[in-house]
């Protein structure tokens, strides 16, 4: 009787480990990560920022354009990323102190579509020393 109980426990433990391992692998390999960022007078940096995070494994960038109404346009620099859908551009041009509203908007519209939402400024770069892909790091 004791051997049967021990065998059942070993089988249950093995199944739990198997499921945990496969669920973990499944979730990480299909993980979706986005960045929410606000840009104002940053046309000089936005292409570098975009390429860096695209190469780092980010799935999408939500860029909130807070330039002056008649100021520079991000479309002039990153139209290829916008047209491909990698960047979703929101027009918040000319609005004063919109940061909290933008963060709420990005969260509210994307929390259920992505596993991770990262809020960065365009001059902020993550550096995970031994990793070239953020999904490998999260794994």
In short:
This protein is α/β, with parallel strands linked by helices and 139 residues long. It is 49% helix and 16% strand.
Comma- or semicolon-separated keywords:
49% helix; four-stranded parallel beta sheet; 139 residues; globular; alpha/beta
List the helices and strands and how they pair.
Elements: H1 2-29, E1 33-39, H2 43-55, E2 60-65, H3 75-84, E3 87-91, H4 99-110, E4 116-119, H5 134-138
Parallel strand pairs: 1-2, 1-4, 2-3
What percentage of residues falls in helices of 4 or more residues? 40-55%
- The coarse overall form would be globular
Q: Distance N terminus to C terminus?
A: 41 Å
What is the average per-residue confidence, as pLDDT, rounded to a whole number?
A: 83
Pick out the low-confidence regions. Answer: 21-26
The structural class is alpha/beta
Q: Main β-sheet: number of strands, strand sense, barrel status?
A: 4 strands, parallel
Strand content: 15-25%
Task: Please state how the strands of the largest beta sheet are arranged side by side.
Answer: 3-2-1-4
Query: Helical region count?
Result: 5
Radius of gyration: 21 Å
Secondary-structure element string: HEHEHEHEH
Tally of DSSP β-strands: 4
